Predict the 3D structure of the following.
Amino acid sequence: MEQDKFIISTDPARTQAQPGLEDALDSGPDAELRSFVIDAAQHGERLDKALGALVPEFSRSYLQQLVEAGAVSLNGAAATRSAHKVKAGDRGEVELRPTPQSQAFRPETIALNVVFEDEHLLVVDKPAGLVVHPAPGHWSGTLLNGLLGRDAGAMLLPRAGIVHRLDKDTSGLMVVARTRTMMDELVRRIAARAVERQYVALAHRPWEGAPSRHVEAPIGRDPRNRLRMAVVDGGKPASTALELLQNGEQGCWVRATLGTGRTHQIRVHMAHVGHPLVADELYGGAPAAGLARQALHAYRLAFEHPATGRPLEFHAPLPADLRRALAAWGLRYNDPEWLTSHAPG
């Protein structure tokens, strides 16, 4: 007997990430006070270099940050310059505070819009602005921190069970594993293209030509700007199916279906075909229609539950900022049910 398909359309109320933890350079219970004496071999060296020899487990750049934060004293006074030349016999103390990296994988109470959950996995509707993984500049307040905060078992999993990601300013659906077996299986299925991921995007310039377009263009690091990805010879194979939903005088409303999952794939491919996303300045877009973040939303996620075999399908309504942007350009909002009933192929 054919199983029923389980379909969820998420609550349109958007959640926001809570503020992160206090700055990791602030003194706290995990700090360690270590005394030191400058010996003859270090006479005349910069303070940060001398500290690097005395405290080899910390990088020199981080020790410089500790000096700037007032965590180092020399001969009873606060050291203020990493370039200060020390003398043999100088005595001091350094307060060894945890690095941001060491504090990144900590539980935090963060409001998450969980639209489905069982003992094997959960599905989250991520708001724009929420970072998925801790990284420089975002060592706390991430989706990973929130997952650790709501489920102690997530600490036992790599990346707290996160098997794919969305960019900080992309909104929409993500699946997260709750066991190692499920994590390995979801990773395998995503690689095998057995997890359907569809997005909607608002892009610059009216669409021309056939309403459907399949982009096969390899993606790699942009040799001219290491912060970007680009279509490059020798890049990893990347496949995106694009379909025009509605055309306008200022731009187009497009559905994108991932065939592969390369970094920034839809953003790169849309720019490659001459339609950078609205407000995606990294790839040639510009703020418009009231949007200050890239106009990309992961609206549909569908897969067969690896443990139960039950077909699952989830829909995430458009966030309010994208609805307003469509209205500003005179374009029509397509709800998830309409999009599903007009699925490509």
